[in-house]
Amino acid sequence: MIRHVAAGTAMLATAALLLAQAPGAAAAPVTSGQQIFAQNCAACHQPAGQGIPGAFPALARNKFVTGDPAKVAQLLLNGRGGMPTFRDGLDDAQIAAVASFVRSSWGNRAPPVPVALVAKWRGGAEKAIDRPMPGH
To answer: Can you spell out the DSSP letters for 53-90?
Structure first.
């Protein structure tokens, strides 16, 4: 009897592990701003935020990035020029996380972007950005 209980427990544990790894299983969303930046932004803006002159603006020590957080949120939601929109690819918490990461990295010293601010601009009627980030 004990052998059957142990075998049953082992089978349940194996089944749970396989289900957790099954294709289509919901993965935990990435919420680290640094991870989101690495996956979505670093190819163009470069891992250290230095950008590519003439193509993609530097984010390091960038006055737009450290300026009005609403404009940063709008830019990430709506894109501009060669920059894609992240409206459909990232949720509000992920956009706030990556914006906050960029605003506090590579010599930038700005407060985090609140999730509520991103949510406001995602649902808001205003889609245009008054002063776009130079280079975008």
So the answer is: TTTB---TT-HHHHS-HHHHHHHHHH-BTTBPP-TTTS
